[in-house]
UniProtKB/TrEMBL annotation:
Alphabetized PANTHER family for the sequence: FAD-DEPENDENT OXIDOREDUCTASE, SULFURTRANSFERASE YTWF-RELATED
Gene3D superfamilies, per the entry: Rhodanese-like domain
Entries under Pfam families matching the protein: Rhodanese (PF00581)
SMART domains xref list: RHOD
Name by which UniProt lists this protein: Rhodanese-related sulfurtransferase
InterPro entries: GlpE_sulfurtransferase (IPR050229), Rhodanese-like_dom (IPR001763), Rhodanese-like_dom_sf (IPR036873)
Domain Rhodanese, chain residue ranges per copy: 23-111
Length: 126
């Protein structure tokens, strides 16, 4: 089901759905869109690390973990994956099609935003 583009494995919605269904700890799903996009609609339980903050977060990412990056269409998340691969974080994947192709459950609001310093903002009002 997955395929490769520019050396980055591309995964589809069905694979993300399966990861969520089984509660997989890895790969770690990360949304890289802007705050406004994430607040409007995101996959429940997936944290936001805006693309422009990724360079300042590289040192905080566990190099032994695997990651899947998510954006609106799959282009920004592909660029994040390529960038991190260049930084030595090699187990990175991209959600091909991004949120435009997502038909699963969504949530509104700023549920889980990772700030520049690595601090987390989690909205626990459910």
């Amino acid at each position: 089901m997955s395929f490769e583009e520019d050396g980055i494995v591309q995964i589809k919605e069905e694979e993300i759905q399966q990861l969520l269904k089984v509660g997989a700890k890895e790969p770690i799903l990360i949304d890289v869109r802007e705050l406004e996009e994430y607040s409007e609609s995101h996959i429940p339980g997936v944290p936001l690390i805006p693309m422009n903050t990724i360079p300042s977060m590289v040192a905080d990412l566990d190099r032994s973990s695997s990651y899947v990056f998510i954006c609106r269409s799959g282009k920004r998340s592909q660029n994040v994956a390529l960038y991190l691969k260049e930084q030595g974080i090699t187990n990175v994947r991209n959600f091909a099609g991004g949120m435009l192709s997502w038909n699963g459950e969504v949530k509104q609001g700023l549920e889980w935003v990772v700030k520049h310093s690595g601090e987390l903002y989690q909205d626990k009002t459910e």
